[in-house]
């Protein structure tokens, strides 16, 4: 059973990751923290894009909604960080479903353009401080530290463990998705929507659900992102971020858990490490996207058809 | 087959236009429980369009589709499927990149109870159900002699096998009415003889069948009742024997249509 | 009323530029079903090349001579057309049979590459065009002002669009382009060299785009490396509004979008102009996703 071998390797790697703070420096811990958060967002993008096959190029919106919900609730209303997470998840999921509801009937490319539109409108709402709660172009500062059973988690190590736990939960959920009717229905819709509906699949329901789940998970990552940086600003949730998430899924491998994780490393972590390249960074980045696609059109680590 | 069986499906004066083209016009058709009904006609007669209307893929411009007396025209395809009407496609539509078993599991969609959150949490009940679904699907694959390819990628298999997989997928949904769109297309002689037997087995298991087919061998051997359409209109119907000798039907096939295959089919 | 007329004139100018750029999106989409995300950046590359030619040949001070401006346009068109062909050859052709999204990501990478290439070659800052590239004459009708530049841009754009329309609809090769857009395989069977058609589309589209990009430069008298994204996006929206894959649709969509966004910024809010444009797009997608003139892509059961 290949599946369980992969899963066991995954579990070992995850536990090994949990021990990294014992040996690594603070800067590495914070890079791994950021990796964990973006990996969750990338996995959540994959739910919509790679698994349900809907061209979502505005996923940073839901990540941003989660982050801003936490920032606003914590800074303005003093709600403890971890209490904001379920609210962030629910609000992001609702935003995702409401935006998706009129759009899911659209053919791929139209949906793609509509989601770009959502992302731009979201950015403008943040920058123009609609409702006076987003803090405008500067965003919101001074987000507190989470506490668990009365213990404040203020160290890099503590935050890392929190982020790593969410990644673990996301990985378990994705793994379960692969073995459930829900995961199969997403694939049926992706491969042939008409055939799926003639077998009784309510396409609209499941597509909106895919957006809700993907957005909700991104919202949870948003909470931890706001906590990790102690600040949120519009620039972290712009169209370019959505493009990067989109590219992670396609470059890594659609519906492939190791592929998406590897994609996250390449698209988010490597640029962090190679800051020395400075202004050449994005030139190389763009070139790399072309080269990877030409050499591996299915992605670096495509999903394999595993015999059951 | 006794004609006193209740009517399952009835098309009541169905018509549909695409732009200016009248693809189906004033069509009446009845399928009784337990029958195997054949819908035949020259290429472009509108047979697949009729299937698309029945299964909710197209909405008819006028007329009604009645399922056990209830109008189902205008319902989306998934609701039609919920009522027990399942179909195959003329151009096989298997889920590419997925195994035969995964394809057949799609047919189990309506027969599955697990909620989406039970799936995400992988509850013990959900895992039990998954195991059971797989066993049931393997049973269906066995009866169609497909169990040896259960884990192969469905779309990589030979054409004739893919047709059987598609049929297995619909059978997994335990249909009341099975609609087959040219099930013999692309099959060799052995496969099409086997298909005859399969269709009769399906009927004997209590499933009503409506099929479009060009292979007269299949049509004449398995159907109880045949409806012939040409240019969207019904031109004849009756028992296979009477259709074979109906001059209107022969003219529709031979006189106006010069497709070689059709001529051979009736020769 | 005067404000309305003034916004109408301004909108018509911007709209004809959108239309020029939109043509490149729609032609590529019509044949390859690919959103060429790098197209807006190619157009802006045209603006930068034009800027370099003008400042290089005219030196500092004084208005550049007419022939310099013509050389600027010609060189911008040539270089960008070559870039377009190279782009297709390296980034898209190898992916023609791959999953559609692989080509989309390749296009996004190409956009990033061109954008940052422009930044590295020219400048991360906004560059200004010298004065007097276009005649400075303005015509006043009451309080409505029309500049010679606007007349020039609208006239040349309309002529180019007419020429393209005639080329695609009246010539033999134009017929081949339309045939390939409807069904590539059938076109190939009819003896049409589809590769040649695709190459030609990657010459025509970027060439028109380069002219549009340089128009943006001389109209606003400035250029910055990353403006290809917003102009490209607007032009793409224009293509969708007109009906993606439809050449006259792109022209109409461009003009309408220019007028709409100009009126929106004049009457509703200039801060929210872009959001309003996206709102319009989303509305159109909900009501009539195939755009005003419809599209050539049909789903078949």
From TrEMBL, chain A:
Any matching Pfam family: BPD_transp_2
Protein's membrane topology: Multi-pass membrane protein
Compartments in which it is found: Cell membrane
Keywords of this entry: Cell membrane, Membrane, Transmembrane, Transmembrane helix
Primary location group: membrane
GO MF term (any one): branched-chain amino acid transmembrane transporter activity
InterPro entries in the record: ABC_transp_permease, LivM-like
Record protein name field: Branched-chain amino acid ABC transporter permease
TrEMBL record, chain B:
Cellular component GO terms held in the UniProt record: plasma membrane
One function term, GO molecular function aspect: L-isoleucine transmembrane transporter activity
Key words of the record: ATP-binding, Nucleotide-binding, Transport
All residue ranges annotated as the ABC transporter domain in the record: 9-256
GO biological process: D-alanine transmembrane transport; L-alanine transport; L-isoleucine import across plasma membrane; L-valine import across plasma membrane
CDD domains registered for this protein in UniProt: ABC_Mj1267_LivG_branched (cd03219)
Entry-linked InterPro entries: AAA+_ATPase (IPR003593), ABC_AA/LPS_Transport (IPR051120), ABC_transporter-like_ATP-bd (IPR003439), BCA_ABC_TP_C (IPR032823), P-loop_NTPase (IPR027417)
Keyword ATP-binding: yes
Pfam families with a match to the protein in the record: ABC_tran (PF00005), BCA_ABC_TP_C (PF12399)
Name of this chain's protein: ABC transporter domain-containing protein
Species per Swiss-Prot/TrEMBL record: marine sediment metagenome
The organism's taxonomic lineage, starting at the top: unclassified sequences, metagenomes, ecological metagenomes
From TrEMBL, chain C:
Top-rank taxon, per record: Bacteria
Organism expressing this protein natively: Marinobacter antarcticus
Keywords assigned by UniProt, alphabetized: Amino-acid transport, Cell inner membrane, Cell membrane, Membrane, Transmembrane, Transmembrane helix, Transport
Compartments where found: Cell inner membrane
Protein's UniProt keywords contain Electron transport: no
Gene Ontology molecular function terms on file: L-isoleucine transmembrane transporter activity; L-leucine transmembrane transporter activity; L-phenylalanine transmembrane transporter activity; L-valine transmembrane transporter activity
Name of this protein: Branched-chain amino acid ABC transporter permease
Keyword Chloroplast: no
Transmembrane segments: 12-35, 42-61, 67-89, 101-122, 142-168, 197-221, 275-294
Family designation: Belongs to the binding-protein-dependent transport system permease family. LivHM subfamily.
Membrane topology note: Multi-pass membrane protein
Gene Ontology terms: biological process: D-alanine transmembrane transport; L-alanine transport; L-isoleucine import across plasma membrane
GO cellular component, one term: plasma membrane
């Amino acid at each position: 059973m290949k599946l369980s071998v992969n899963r066991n390797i995954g579990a070992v790697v995850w536990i090994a990751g949990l021990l990294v703070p014992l040996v690594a420096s603070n800067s590495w811990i914070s890079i791994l923290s950021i990796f964990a958060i973006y990996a969750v967002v990338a996995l959540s993008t994959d739910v919509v894009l790679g698994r349900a096959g809907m061209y979502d190029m505005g996923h940073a919106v839901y990540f941003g909604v989660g982050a801003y919900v936490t920032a606003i609730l914590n800074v303005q209303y003093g709600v403890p960080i971890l209490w904001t997470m379920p609210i962030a998840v629910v609000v992001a999921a609702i935003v995702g479903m409401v935006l998706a509801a009129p759009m899911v009937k659209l053919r791929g490319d139209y949906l793609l353009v509509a989601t770009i539109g959502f992302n731009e409108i979201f950015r403008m709402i943040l920058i123009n401080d609609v409702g006076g709660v987003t803090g405008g172009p500067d965003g919101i500062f001074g987000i507190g530290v989470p506490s668990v059973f009365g213990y404040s988690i203020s160290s890099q190590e503590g935050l890392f463990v929190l982020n790593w736990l969410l990644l673990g939960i996301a990985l378990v959920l994705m793994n379960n998705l692969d073995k459930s009717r829900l995961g199969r229905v997403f694939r049926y819709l992706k491969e042939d929507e008409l055939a799926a509906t003639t077998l009784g699949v309510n396409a609209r329901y499941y597509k909106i659900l895919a957006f809700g789940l993907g957005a909700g998970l991104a919202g949870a990552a948003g909470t931890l992102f706001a906590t990790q940086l102690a600040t949120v600003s519009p620039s972290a949730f712009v169209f370019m971020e959505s493009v990067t998430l989109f590219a992670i899924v396609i470059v890594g491998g659609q519906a492939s858990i190791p592929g998406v994780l590897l994609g996250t490393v390449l698209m988010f972590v490597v640029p962090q490490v190679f800051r020395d390249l400075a202004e050449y960074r994005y030139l190389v980045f763009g070139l790399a996207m072309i080269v990877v696609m030409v050499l591996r059109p299915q992605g670096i680590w495509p999903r394999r058809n595993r015999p059951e | 087959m006794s004609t006193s069986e209740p009517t399952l499906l009835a098309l009541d004066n169905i018509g549909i236009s695409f732009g200016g083209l009248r693809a189906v016009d004033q069509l009446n058709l009845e399928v009784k429980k337990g029958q195997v009904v054949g819908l035949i006609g020259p290429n472009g007669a509108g047979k697949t369009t009729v299937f698309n209307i029945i299964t909710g893929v197209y909405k008819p411009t006028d007329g009604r589709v009645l399922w056990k007396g209830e109008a189902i025209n205008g319902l989306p395809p998934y609701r039609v499927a919920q009522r027990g009407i399942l179909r195959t496609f003329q151009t096989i539509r298997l889920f590419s990149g997925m195994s035969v078993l995964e394809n057949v599991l799609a047919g189990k969609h309506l027969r599955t109870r697990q909620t989406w959150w039970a799936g995400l949490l992988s509850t013990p009940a959900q895992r039990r159900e998954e195991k059971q679904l797989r066993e049931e699907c393997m049973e269906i694959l066995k009866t169609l002699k497909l169990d040896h390819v259960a884990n192969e990628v469905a779309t990589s298999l030979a054409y004739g096998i893919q047709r059987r997989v598609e049929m297995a997928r619909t059978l997994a949904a335990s249909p009341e009415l099975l609609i087959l769109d040219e099930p013999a297309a692309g099959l060799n002689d052995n496969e099409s003889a086997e298909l005859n037997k399969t269709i009769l087995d399906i009927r004997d298991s209590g499933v009503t069948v409506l099929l479009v087919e060009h292979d007269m061998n299949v049509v004449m051997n398995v159907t109880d009742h045949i409806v012939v359409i040409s240019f969207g209109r019904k031109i004849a119907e009756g028992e296979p024997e009477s259709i074979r000798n109906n001059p209107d039907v022969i003219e529709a096939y031979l006189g106006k249509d010069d497709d070689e295959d059709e001529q051979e089919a009736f020769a | 009323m005067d404000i309305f007329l003034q916004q109408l004139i301004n909108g018509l100018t911007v709209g004809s530029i959108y239309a020029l750029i939109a043509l490149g999106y729609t032609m590529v989409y019509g044949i390859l079903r690919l959103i060429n995300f790098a197209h807006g950046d190619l157009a802006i590359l045209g603006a930068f090349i034009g800027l370099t030619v003008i400042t290089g040949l005219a030196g500092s001070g004084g208005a550049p001579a007419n022939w310099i401006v013509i050389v600027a346009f010609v060189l911008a068109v040539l270089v960008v057309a070559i870039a377009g062909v190279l782009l297709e050859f390296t980034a898209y052709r190898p992916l023609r049979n791959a999953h559609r999204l692989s080509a989309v990501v390749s296009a996004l990478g190409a956009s990033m590459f061109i954008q940052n290439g422009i930044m590295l070659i020219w400048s991360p800052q906004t560059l200004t065009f010298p004065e007097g590239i276009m005649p400075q004459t303005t015509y006043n009708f009451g309080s409505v002002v029309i500049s010679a530049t606007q007349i020039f841009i609208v006239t040349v754009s309309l002529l180019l669009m007419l020429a393209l329309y005639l080329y695609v609809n009246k010539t033999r090769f134009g017929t081949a382009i339309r045939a390939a857009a409807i069904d590539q395989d059938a076109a190939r069977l009819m003896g049409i060299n589809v590769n040649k058609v695709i190459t030609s589309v990657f010459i025509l589209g970027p060439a028109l785009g380069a002219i549009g990009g340089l128009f943006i430069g001389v109209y606003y008298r400035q250029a910055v490396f990353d403006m290809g994204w917003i102009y490209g996006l607007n032009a793409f929206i224009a293509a969708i509004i007109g009906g993606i894959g439809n050449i006259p649709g792109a022209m109409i969509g461009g003009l309408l979008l220019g007028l709409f966004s100009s009126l929106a910024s004049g009457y509703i809010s200039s801060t929210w102009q872009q959001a309003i444009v996206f709102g319009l797009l989303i509305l159109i997608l909900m009501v009539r996703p195939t755009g005003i003139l419809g599209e050539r892509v049909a789903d078949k059961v």
